[in-house]
């Protein structure tokens, strides 16, 4: 998409305002992601000066949150490339995150009041979601409710705010688009959690099957725990570097209990909910396509 290049140029322009070459240098080092939030905004609001600015703002906030997340998670790769904390250090990752984040907010303050409200509010949710995520790794979580609330805040809230804001920009029904964005975001995070199990590290751009080792009991593991016979054995593998026998046991149990299969079904079901909310809208075909592309990332 040509227009995504325009979004990247807009981000560059927003950072150039700082008149600080180091910040631009760091920007160059950031690996570009899928830009799901921008694709969503552009599909809903079309291409305009404002929609491109909104994309740039949301991408900068998202990038800032990942810069901080990589410090929190002690990750050394991001999107298949060395993360900023690995290339430089934690301090640089946090400070550059702060620059991206605050520049985004300055620009956001110049936009429509409702948009500024919903996007800034989503960032609080995002921050609470991150804290919940970290808290949930303290002990084996068995609550689907807690998992759902956490992924809503950590991931879906900013996608919801992006869809809502795009609709507000062009006078569409913002509630319907917000519901679409929220469910798209929930399904997106569930699929991310599923891919951690089903994909190899090369495709993921980070080690595979890492979530459970890091203490994250994601949806496939929640189902697995509910259904597996030897719950104590599963619990004993929690937060442990697994050897190949242990890994194979988990994989076997995923098959046997259909936990993985049903987690995929649940993500697709939420995806369908998203589509339902915008099915009568003019651009619903595009929105169905975004959902399909997102769900059909290789399992
Ligand atoms: C990635 O999750 C993390 C997020 C989606 C949100 C992180 C949010 C913050 C650090 C708070 C907000 C801060 C600012 C400055 C806006 P993950 O660790 O599950 O995914 P990963 O495997 O891609 O790292
Ligand atoms: Mg992380």
Automatic annotation (TrEMBL):
Pfam families: polyprenyl_synt. GO terms for biological process: isoprenoid biosynthetic process. The keyword Metal-binding applies. PROSITE patterns: POLYPRENYL_SYNTHASE_1 (PS00723), POLYPRENYL_SYNTHASE_2 (PS00444). Its cofactor is Mg(2+). Transmembrane segments: none annotated. Keywords: Magnesium, Metal-binding, Transferase. It comes from the Bacteria. GO terms for molecular function: metal ion binding; prenyltransferase activity. Signal peptide: none annotated. Belongs to the FPP/GGPP synthase family. PANTHER family: ALL TRANS-POLYPRENYL-DIPHOSPHATE SYNTHASE PDSS1, GERANYLGERANYL PYROPHOSPHATE SYNTHASE. This is Octaprenyl-diphosphate synthase. It comes from Aliarcobacter vitoriensis.
